[in-house]
Amino acid sequence: MSGDLFAATLADTIALHERAKRDPRPVLAAAAAIVDALKRGGKLLLFGNGGSAADAQHVAAEFVGRFQRERAALAAIALTTDTSVLTSIGNDYAYDRVFARQIEALGRAGDVAFGISTSGGSPNVVAALVAARALGLQTIALTGKDGGAVGRAAGIHVNVPSDVTARVQEVHRTLLHVMCDIVERAFVDR
């Protein structure tokens, strides 16, 4: 039985990667928007809940540190990491405002707000994308299922069409690494 589960899981993940490969345009548009913002002196603000919060932190680390090549540090902030900010906003306002309030404080026109939601229905991610658009930030959503309200709130929508959270997260990680690679190559001295 364990061997069957192993094979089925890999088959499902491979099939979903194949679906994602069919239309690279949203991933390429997202990477181009990030490159453009960073080259103009802007920053990347990333956010999500649970595993998506971990993905936001992972991508910020790849940009501030490095992905695969030596280059100058790139301005990226995961809005999921400051527990004092998160808990004070959650307590004083509402959990739905934990990212939007940070976008209002840190976001500037020309920056990129990048929301990640495997369900596409995270109210705090939607609120942050709405706040970002109102401030003139470029907005990107990375979603699962049909993208939901999160996908509709973003200017660029990268969707992994599956209802299985674990499979969505696996493909999200691959797509995020593709974006990291594209962005990093734009900043490596040749």
Task: Describe the structure concisely.
The chain is α/β, with parallel strands linked by helices and 190 residues long. It is built from 8 helices and 5 strands, in the order ααβαβααβαβαβα.
Would you mind describing this structure in some detail?
- The protein has a five-stranded parallel sheet, with helices on both faces.
- It contains eight helices and five strands, in the order H-H-E-H-E-H-H-E-H-E-H-E-H.
- Helix 3 links the parallel strand 1 and strand 2.
- It is globular, with a radius of gyration of 16 Å.
- The protein has helices at residues 2-21, 25-39, 51-64, 83-92, 100-106, 123-134, 148-153, 165-187; strands spanning 44-48, 76-78, 112-117, 138-143, 156-159.
- The protein is of the alpha/beta class and 190 residues long.
- It has one domain (2-187): 3-Layer(aba) Sandwich (Rossmann fold).
The CATH topology, please?
Rossmann fold
Largest sheet: spatial strand order: 2-1-3-4-5
Q: Tell me the name of the CATH homologous superfamily.
A: Glucose-6-phosphate isomerase like protein, domain 1
Given helix and strand content, the structural type is: alpha/beta
CATH class assignment: Alpha Beta
The strand count comes to 5
Rounded average pLDDT: 97
| Major sheet details | 5 strands, parallel
Strand content: 5-15%
* Helical fraction: 55-70%
- The N- to C-terminal Cα distance equals 51 Å
Annotation keywords:
about 190 residues, about 55% helix
List the helices and strands and how they pair.
Blueprint: H1 2-21, H2 25-39, E1 44-48, H3 51-64, E2 76-78, H4 83-92, H5 100-106, E3 112-117, H6 123-134, E4 138-143, H7 148-153, E5 156-159, H8 165-187
Parallel strand pairs: 1-2, 1-3, 3-4, 4-5
